[in-house]
Amino acid sequence: MLIADGAYGSDWRGHTHVETGLEIGGAVGVESRAHASVRAVSEIGYLWEQRERPWGLGGTFYAGLGKEDMRLGLKSRLRYRFHPEWSIDVSAGVIFATLENEPNVSDTGFVGGAHLNHGRWLTVRLDVNVKKFGDWTTVHQNQPIVHEGGYETAVYGGVALRGHAGWVATAIGVAGFFAVMLLVLASGGRS
Question: How far apart (Å, rounded) are the C-alpha atoms in residues 1 and 164?
Answer without folding.
Answer: 29
